[in-house]
Design brief:
The complex is a heterodimer of chains A (about 260) and B (about 150).
Chain A: H1 11-15, H2 18-33, H3 39-62, H4 70-92, H5 96-116, H6 120-144, H7 152-155, H8 162-182, H9 195-200, H10 207-217, H11 220-255
Helix pairs in contact in A: 2-3, 2-8, 4-5, 5-6
Chain B: H1 3-27, H2 31-55, H3 60-90, H4 138-143
Classes of the chains: A mainly alpha (about 260), B mainly alpha (about 150).
Amino acid sequence: MTPLLVGEIGLRELASNPWFWALVLGAIGLSWKMPRSSVAMRRLGAIVALAGVVVLAAALVVKEPISESYIQQGVFWFLAIVTIVAAGAAVTMRDAVYCAIWFALSLLGTGGLFLYQGAQFLGVATVVVYAGAIVVTFLFVVMLAQPEGHASYDRISWGWYVKPFATIAAGILLGAVVATVLAIEPDSAPLLATAEQLEVNVLKPAHVAGLGAEVFSRHLISVEIAGTLLMVALVGAIVMMSRTNQSVRSEERRDA
Amino acid sequence: MHELALLQNYLIVGGILFAIGLMGFLVRRNMIVMFLSAEMMLQGVSVSLVAWGRFHNDWGGQSLTLFIIAVAACEAGIALALILSLAYRSHKLDIAVWQDLREEDQPAFVDERVPEERGDEQLWPTLTPAGREPKHDWEAELHRGRV
């Protein structure tokens, strides 16, 4: 794999680079799929973004495979594609209910990716914690959404300039990350763990015991602080809501 | 498994999740969708952290992700309380209603005119009818107490 550093490569090389085209197609498609008044444009955007995902999958296949086994590779492809497509749909749907559903699917994909890495506890914790969060979000949407039709602010964005500039910002960020990641040479990674080392540490069978021992010894103070933070957030949310109720009620009384 | 290729793939997927969340946060105006986009950025970071943890054979990545989940739960509680209190006051989930909070020398954002939505653009989920519809006793239903 040749290093892909900005400044070292010419336009010809860029034009034959599948990563570049996956990035461009995905960015353009996602930006077209974002809420806008033209429905045809949004459909075209969805098709272009899916083409970008296909090119991305092809680029990842051409790259060095993660495993000899086709089943292991296939499981990764499936999880990665579900996560990415659901994430793209979650930010572009006009209806906030569909956004929440697609976000939940994206989270399931992320939980699967965690399991694939051997992070069993995190995979389950993600699904459990966020499932509750998604149900609450769902209730909020149902409670607050407009009774009929899509709200006007769900069908447009800010002015004309925000979509292209946000796309360019995210595209440059992602392009820099991918170029740097692909430039890692195998021999320039001295901290690479061997299979035997993984077996006794991160991938050992008593997974939760290992993670718990680490969290409750090395990060003990952090755990205390995180618990305090949860407590403060809980109290803060309650205070905020009771203040809101009081002020809304007094406004209603004044209006009446 | 080839650990380096695994790390690269996971970092790319994490970067894509972060970039999608960033775009959603900047472009969307619905407060709930903005909140979901912020959560998606956190997910991208978590994916990268877990991959690095495995690569270095270290529990640090997974411990940090655990704390990310805790902080995200706090954030969700506060954010939904804020959204609810803002929605009570304006009866909208539009973040542009609150642009009075911008900096002093910034120009105001003037909303463009949104064309009316046609009927065929609204696709809502429907339930297929199951079985026969029972006979209604309208007289009895009129006198039933409200729940």
